[in-house]
Structures are given as C-alpha cells and as structure tokens.
Write a sequence for this structure.
C-alpha cells in the first residue's frame, strides 16, 4: 500500500479518485497532496460552465462519479427536483455542483477516518520519479510521496498550423473557446460573421452560447466532412443483445476494414438501432483497442476516427434541435473543407478552405478554433509534460494520443513501467482509446484506488 500520495489535477478525474480513496478503510491513514492547478476545484473545463445552454451529453442516470454508487448523480439532483428522470440530459453546471458536494463530503469523511488531505491550489511544475518515491515540485517547494497520479485532463490546444502570426496577433482568432465563453462581460463589439473551425461537441457548445449572446451574427462551421455530431434519441434505445457476438467477431479479426464491415452488417439488421450497437461496444473498447497493431490503429485514425467520434460522442436531443433551428433560420451554415490558411485582410480575417480540388475564401470578423480534445504531448507547451518528456520520465504515444502506459495506468519509461507513477483520464487514450468521459473515468478511479491501496 502507498500511504503518501500526490494527485496532480483539479478536475472530475482527480475528484473521483480522491473520493474513492477517502471512502475506503485503510490500515494506516493516508496523506494526500492534491495539486488542483487553480480554477474551480473539481469542476475542470467541462463542468466549470454556468451556461444553461451547456448540457451533459450523457443521461443523468449514467453520470455517477462512483462505480459503486450508480445512482449517485441522479439521487443528488432528485433531492431538489423529484421530477427529473434518469434519461434526462441536465445542465453541466448541476454536475459541477454534484462534484463539489461529493468532494466536500469525501474530505469530511476522510478527516473522520484520520486521513489528511493537503489541498494545494497550484500547478505542479515538475515530477521526479524514483524506484521508491516521487518528488513533486511546485515553485520553491517540493513534496516527497510514495506514488503520484497525473489527472491533468486534455492539454490546451495549440493554434492550427494554417493560422498566420498576424491573424493570431489580431485578437480575432480565438484558440481557446472556453476562455472566450467565460469572459461573458468582455467589451468585445458583437461580430457580424463568426467562423468556427471544427464541428464536434465543442463547436456545438460554442454556437449555442454565442448565438444567444450575439443573436444577429451569422455563424459558419467548417470541417473536413461538414457534419455535426449525431444526436441521442429522446428515449433510450434498448440493445437487441449484449453485443458479445459482435465483439467476438471483432476479436477474431483485428483489422479496421473488417471491423467497419462487421459494424455495418450488425447495424443493418432490422432489430438493431445503431446507437444501441455503438453503446454496447463501449465496455469492450479498451480490450478491442489493445488487439490492434500500430498499423491498424494508424488506419483507424486516418479512415475511421471521424465517423466513430461522430456516432459515439453524441449531442443531447435538445442541443440537436437548437442546432437544427439555427440551420433552418439561416443563421448557421455548414461548410465542408480543409483549412489552408487564415490571414489578416483589412479589418477582418480571410480563411482559405479547400475541398475536392477547389479553393474558397471565407471572410470573418471572428474565427474560433473548436477542434476539441488535444492529447498530443509531443508538441505540448504544458510545463509539467515538457519536464517529464525532457527527462525521459514518460514516453509519448506514437499516434499523439497521450502517453504510453499499461492498461492499469502505470506510466512507461523506456521499456519499463514505473511502479509508482500513474495517469487517469485523457492521457491514457493511446492505451485505452475511450478514456475521457465519466463512465470510463469512474471505472479507472475505482481500479486505481485499489492498486494504490493494495486492496
Ligand atoms: C466541454 C466538455 C463537455 C463534456 N461533457 C461531458 C459529459 O456530458 N459527460 C461526460 O461523461 N464527459 C464529458 N466530457 C468529458 C470530460 O473530459 C470528463 O467528463 C471530465 O471532465 C474529465 O475530467 P479530468 O479531470 O480528466 O480533466 P479536466 O476537467 O480537464 O481537469 C484537469 C484539471 O487538471 C488541472 N491541471 C493541469 N495541469 C496541472 C498541473 N500541472 N498541476 C495541477 N493541476 C493541473 C487543470 O487545470 C484542470 O483543472 C466533456 C468534456 C468537455 C471538454
């Protein structure tokens, strides 16, 4: 059992792991240093929003923090409003309230059990792992612990390569959309034309919020395929079976082309609703991903990733209706193409977008990068990640999907895994593929707590 622990990260994954640890009886009390990195503790970007337009993209009944208490979130919201159903898609700020409440409860319970949690509202700058200890450095102070967990979520996205330095300097190209949304009172004049680069769930959030803030602006969303994510059904689609036959067939032939064919065949059967088929694969994804060779994973990233993300990470029916309404009213347009350049022209920006051998120019007052999750540590400016890479304490995933690790989250250096340095959440995408949402994170937190405590 590790007695002195450090958790690095202040979002939902760190909060869930802390809750799992403090909830358990241990032979000796724990000493936990929790580096939260500043910001609103436990909420992270996803649940730090106060906007009523930002909804969970998972039903309330599936959003518990804890694998052992599946009704956790639902019970929490029903205490205030018993009419809320498990199938509802609730505002994300309610989930933030739940995270904060659960952390406060866990801290109180942990205290009663003799555990000590030292909350440090700063970012960890460096980690030095050794065989029997890890030293965590922030500023001038250092903390020696038995084991440390990286729970830093996704990395801040760098600007796209096509964007000129002048466009970046103009203040009209927004790299971090969450910062723009958070500064609701900023005195920016309302733009006439806003272009979004990327059409995933981040773009949906940004469009819904900004179209309420700037109702007279025109919005153009650009992506290579020109399509928004699929939507959940208002009711739950029941799977025709548990998906075991499909998973077995996929295991027998771990090739992306074959998997796509199998999926298409399964979905085309009359009793199978495609969402139910996709969802039935979810618990098997880490196992299936581990069957793929690097060549096959590369093929997935090139040919199937976009289609998978679109059907797997779906928007709520309400968000989908709102997007459809904006498209119908002509306030929102979809544009298919690959971004080649963003330059400053007169008082605005010009975008060069290419599709099917032709090039088009779009002009905009404001361009917002909504490309979603970045876990490519190879080019990241994240201070801690840079330090860990420079000192060869961690290894990047070759496809830019986080860091190399074992399936139980132990980080790799050279050919070995550290016995005492772990990660949870998005950094493990290279190992598990699906590793960003709460249903995956709560399972990881449960197993990680067991490993750390030697249960
Ligand atoms: C807009 C959005 C909506 C989402 N909606 C859903 C949803 O409806 N349902 C769902 O299941 N999932 C959703 N997700 C997925 C989401 O990633 C997870 O649910 C969850 O928020 C991930 O938490 P995390 O702690 O891993 O990462 P984050 O929330 O990103 O937290 C990481 C934290 O670590 C801190 N940090 C970074 N570096 C350091 C450092 N050096 N030292 C200390 N702290 C550091 C950061 O400041 C941050 O607070 C959504 C994600 C986004 C972005």
């Amino acid at each position: 059992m590790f007695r002195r622990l450090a958790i690095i990260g202040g979002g939902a994954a760190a909060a869930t792991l802390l809750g799992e640890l403090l909830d358990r009886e241990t032979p000796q009390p724990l000493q936990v240093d929790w580096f939260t990195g500043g910001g609103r503790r436990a909420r992270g970007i996803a649940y730090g929003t106060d906007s009523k337009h930002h909804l969970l993209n998972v039903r309330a009944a599936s959003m518990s923090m804890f694998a052992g208490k599946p009704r956790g979130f639902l019970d929490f919201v029903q205490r205030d409003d018993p009419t809320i159903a498990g199938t509802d898609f609730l505002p994300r700020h309610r989930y933030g309230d739940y995270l904060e409440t659960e952390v406060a409860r866990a801290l109180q319970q942990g205290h009663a059990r003799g555990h000590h949690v030292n909350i440090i509202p700063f970012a960890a700058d460096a980690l030095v792992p050794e065989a029997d200890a890890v030293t965590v450095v922030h500023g001038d102070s250092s903390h020696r612990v038995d084991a440390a967990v990286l729970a830093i979520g996704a990395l801040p996205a760098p600007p796209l390569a096509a964007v000129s330095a002048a466009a970046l300097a103009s203040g009209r190209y927004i790299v971090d959309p969450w910062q723009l949304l958070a500064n609701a009172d900023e005195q920016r004049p309302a733009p006439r034309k806003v272009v979004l680069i990327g059409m995933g769930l981040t773009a949906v959030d940004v469009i819904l919020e900004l179209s309420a803030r700037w109702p007279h602006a025109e919005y153009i969303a650009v992506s290579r395929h020109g399509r928004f994510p699929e939507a959940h059904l208002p009711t739950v689609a029941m799977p025709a079976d548990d998906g075991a036959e499909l998973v077995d067939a996929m295991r027998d032939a771990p090739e992306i082309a074959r998997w796509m064919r199998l999926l298409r065949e399964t979905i085309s059967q009359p009793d199978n609703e495609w969402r139910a088929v996709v969802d039935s694969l979810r618990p098997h994804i880490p196992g299936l991903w581990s069957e793929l060779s690097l060549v096959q994973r590369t093929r997935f990233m090139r040919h199937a990733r976009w289609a998978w993300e679109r059907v797997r990470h779906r928007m709520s029916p309400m968000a989908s209706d709102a997007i459809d309404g904006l498209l119908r009213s002509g306030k929102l347009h979809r544009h298919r193409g690959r971004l080649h350049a963003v330059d400053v022209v007169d008082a605005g920006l010009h975008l060069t977008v290419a599709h099917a051998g032709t090039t088009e120019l779009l002009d905009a007052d404001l361009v917002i990068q909504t490309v979603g999750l970045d876990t490519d540590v190879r080019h990241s400016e994240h201070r801690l990640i840079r330090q860990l890479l420079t000192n060869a304490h961690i290894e990047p995933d070759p496809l830019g999907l986080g860091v190399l690790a074992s399936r139980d989250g132990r980080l790799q250096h050279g050919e070995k895994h550290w016995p005492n340095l772990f990660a949870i959440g998005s950094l493990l995408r290279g190992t598990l593929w699906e590793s960003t949402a709460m249903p995956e994170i709560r399972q990881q937190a449960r197993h990680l707590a067991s490993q750390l405590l030697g249960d």
Observations:
- Residues 92-112 form the longest helix (21 residues).
- The mean pLDDT is 93.
